[in-house]
């Protein structure tokens, strides 16, 4: 039973007269609710009406909420399985390797390369269907045990994506491996015989590209509803070299046009992918319109920027068949942690071009990656073949991807966007245990989009929500297909990106996540007793930072009490501030006469921007540095916050007017009605700048950083935003905060914590050295 009081004033709702909301009155409401699994039902009585509501709850944080009743079983041999050969028989008979490759191909493995290197059986392969890397590797080695030469002492599996090595799994004890697959030994025993390295193990020579597996599925398959891609109906054909043809109906939507809130189109789309060489792929897509309502969109774009996206309705309106994509992608692996891609062709419906991307994805236990993508682009015409428009541009975007607790990933992109506007784009997303991701993006550029929905006073910034739904969570068999959806309030030109022809981070982030999680083996043996392991069913994501925060607060408080020279330091700061106050007027008069000087103007800009850069660099050090650098960056951020808080208190207390605001006294108060937090004493910029650099100057013995901070802080006086005494007091305050917190928290080992995950325990370890 539920009850509430509805206090909404429905008559003030937008479109209340059209929606009948104006007929509703505020008042009490009562109801009955019943929840059964995913389904909920409610019957309620409000003051003016009765309602019946039904809902469906999707358990995003369950790893699997649809049973995999159609999942093919792992390889178990066959009645006609040949006996294992000797090494000499293997080397003299190429059919031996081909039999293993064919067995792997029937399990959806792609780009299979097999060789014996001394007494090691090396397999290089990827899997086009199985979503977990550990489980795919488990099926590969289980199959290999049936075919490997009798003298084999080790099995190495180089797992690949688009033939680029992601990790090398080495199994040194085949007897233990076989016993684990049969359920005779536990996980801890297996882990003593396994080694996982990022990329390609330097001891493993790249295997040649000759085809070993016989071509499979040579015919055309027609599937209804239960196909791995989740399409209503599809026609497919593929083989073990990752060549693939796929035909299925697709639906697209178009939001927020003055002609109506929602338009859609239904089309038939045929895609064809073909391997042309080592890491070289042809990717194409052809679509034919079946039905659409986008022809109702009549209003042309009002954007003053180049129409890189706002003319999308013109492209969608064309009903004739269109070539949406035709490009070549060359993927390359430059080191175990560095990947690259070069692309040329028709990228998407609106743009063609040539470009590339380079990605640095560090080794295990790192939670960040960086990439740079540069593309020279030409806008295509609306007919969708090889015609063009006059617009050309070069986009260049550098991206930092950082994994936070609770399954959250933050991505910051900066550079030049499609409409030749420069700026940054922030993306925040959360990944649930089911693999479903939800997030939002916000872009800030100098595009200055002032036409509706933007205004000259408030230009429009691109923003929106996006969802990524792996169909593995919704279907009755495992697969790697992902549905991506995004929803923006308006289709505008500011802050837009070209559709990536093959984003490396998106391609590698999921397998890298599998490899870096716990022991990297996942659901390796598919044994019933594995299902309760955190490697297979991770615990609910949680993050409890309070123990570490409490330690830092305690250390900071204790250090403050231990400082014996607080009074002397305060007196020295007061003397320095009063001495600077004596120079307030002559210094301001000097800069007042030189405001047109280019050097002075740039100095003022430096004073405004340098504190922001210092905070950004401190955050980068905290996020990406080693233990020492990360701890120093965190102290710098804490010091900056403390300095701003202290400066704000002084602003509220003193309420000093800024230079150039009129009056004879340098210590006059602000006019009534002006915000005290915007007053002149002290300078927030100066406080933040010194608070940021002091921990680094102390920790790494770099006193020259104080000179940089002093130069930047003086820029606030050069621009006449502050008096000299404001800058002096702010700098002293920032130094005091940075020095205090650095002394209190410099022992970074005190705050280190690590997650312990073994087959028998799961917990958090915090190292606290005894004093």
From TrEMBL:
| Name listed for the protein in its UniProt record | Phosphatidic acid phosphatase type 2/haloperoxidase domain-containing protein
Question: Per its UniProt record, what SUPFAM superfamilies does this chain match?
Answer: Acid phosphatase/Vanadium-dependent haloperoxidase
Tell me which SMART domains the record gives. acidPPc (SM00014)
Q: InterPro entries attached here?
A: PAP2/HPO (IPR000326), PAP2/HPO_sf (IPR036938), YbjH (IPR010344)
Give the compositionally biased regions (Polar residues).
9-23
Question: Which domain of life, per UniProt?
Answer: Bacteria
**Boundaries of each Phosphatidic acid phosphatase type 2/haloperoxidase domain copy?**
632-742
Which Pfam families does the record match to this protein?
PAP2 (PF01569), YjbH (PF06082)
Instruction: Give the region (Disordered) as residue ranges.
Output: 1-23
């Amino acid at each position: 039973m539920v009850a509430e009081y509805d206090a909404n004033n429905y008559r003030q709702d937008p479109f209340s007269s059209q929606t009948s909301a104006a007929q509703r009155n505020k008042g009490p409401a009562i109801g009955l609710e019943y929840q059964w699994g995913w389904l909920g039902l409610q019957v309620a009585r409000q003051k003016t009406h009765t309602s019946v509501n039904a809902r469906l709850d999707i358990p995003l944080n369950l790893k699997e909420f649809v049973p995999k009743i159609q999942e093919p079983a792992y390889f178990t041999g066959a009645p006609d399985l040949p006996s294992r050969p000797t090494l000499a028989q293997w080397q003299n008979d190429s059919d031996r390797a081909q039999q293993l490759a064919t067995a792997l191909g029937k399990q959806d493995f792609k780009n299979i390369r097999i060789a014996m290197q001394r007494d090691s059986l090396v397999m290089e392969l990827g899997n086009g269907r199985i979503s977990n890397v550990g489980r795919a590797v488990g099926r590969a080695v289980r199959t290999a045990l049936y075919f490997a030469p009798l003298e084999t002492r080790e099995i190495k599996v180089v797992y690949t994506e688009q033939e680029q090595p992601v990790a090398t799994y080495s199994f040194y004890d085949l007897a233990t491996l076989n016993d684990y697959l049969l359920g005779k030994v536990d996980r801890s025993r297996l882990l003593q015989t396994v080694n996982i390295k990022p990329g390609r193990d330097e001891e493993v020579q790249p295997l040649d590209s000759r085809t070993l597996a016989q071509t499979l599925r040579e015919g055309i398959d027609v599937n209804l509803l239960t196909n791995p891609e989740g399409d209503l109906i599809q026609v497919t054909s593929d083989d073990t070299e990752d060549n693939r043809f796929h035909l299925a109906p697709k639906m697209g939507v178009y939001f927020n046009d003055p002609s109506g809130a929602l338009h859609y189109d239904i089309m038939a789309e045929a895609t064809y992918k073909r391997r042309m060489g080592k890491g070289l792929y042809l990717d194409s897509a052809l679509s034919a319109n079946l039905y659409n309502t986008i022809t109702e969109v009549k209003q042309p774009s009002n954007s003053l920027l180049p129409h890189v996206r706002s003319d999308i309705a013109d492209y969608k309106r064309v009903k004739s068949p269109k070539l949406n994509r035709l490009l070549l992608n060359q993927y390359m692996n430059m080191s175990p942690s560095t990947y690259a891609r070069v692309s040329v062709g028709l990228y998407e419906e609106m743009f063609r071009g040539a470009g590339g991307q380079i990605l640095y994805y560090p080794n295990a236990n790192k939670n960040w990656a960086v990439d740079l993508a540069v593309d020279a682009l030409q806008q295509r015409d609306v007919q969708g073949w090889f015609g063009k428009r006059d617009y050309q541009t070069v986009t260049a975007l550098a991206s930092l991807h950082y994994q936070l607790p609770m399954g959250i990933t933050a991505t910051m992109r900066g550079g030049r966007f499609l409409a030749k506007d420069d700026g940054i784009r922030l993306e925040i997303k959360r990944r649930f245990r089911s693999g479903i991701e939800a997030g939002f993006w916000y872009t800030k550029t100098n595009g200055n989009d002032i036409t509706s929905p933007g205004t000259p006073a408030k230009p429009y910034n691109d923003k929106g929500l996006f969802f990524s739904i792996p169909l593995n969570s919704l279907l009755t068999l495992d697969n790697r297909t992902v549905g991506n959806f995004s929803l923006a309030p308006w289709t505008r030109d500011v802050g837009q990106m070209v559709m990536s022809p093959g984003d490396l981070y998106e391609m590698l982030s999921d397998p890298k996540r599998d490899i870096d999680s716990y022991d990297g083996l996942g659901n390796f043996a598919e044994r019933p007793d594995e299902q309760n392991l955190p490697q297979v069913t991770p615990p609910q994501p949680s993050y409890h930072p309070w123990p570490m925060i409490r330690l830092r607060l305690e250390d900071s408080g204790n250090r403050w009490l231990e400082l014996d020279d607080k009074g002397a330091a305060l007196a020295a700061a007061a003397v320095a501030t009063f001495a600077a106050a004596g120079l307030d007027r002559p210094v301001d008069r000097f800069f007042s006469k030189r405001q047109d000087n280019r050097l002075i103007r740039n100095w003022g800009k430096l004073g405004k921007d340098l504190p922001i850069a210092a905070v950004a660099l401190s955050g980068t050090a905290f996020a990406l540095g080693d233990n020492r650098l990360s701890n120093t960056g965190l102290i710098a951020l804490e010091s900056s916050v403390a300095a701003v808080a202290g400066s704000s208190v002084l602003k509220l207390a003193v309420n000093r007017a800024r230079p150039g605001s009129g009056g004879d006294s340098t210590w006059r108060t602000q006019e009534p009605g002006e915000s005290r937090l915007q007053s002149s004493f002290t300078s927030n910029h100066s406080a933040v700048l010194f608070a940021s650099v002091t921990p680094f100057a102390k920790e790494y013995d770099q006193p020259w950083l104080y000179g940089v901070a002093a130069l930047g802080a003086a820029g606030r006086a050069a621009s006449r935003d502050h008096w000299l005494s404001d800058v002096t007091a702010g700098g002293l305050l920032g130094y005091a905060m940075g020095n205090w917190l650095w002394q209190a928290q410099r022992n970074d080992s005190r705050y280190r914590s690590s997650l312990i995950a073994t087959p028998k325990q799961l917990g958090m370890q915090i190292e606290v050295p005894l004093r």
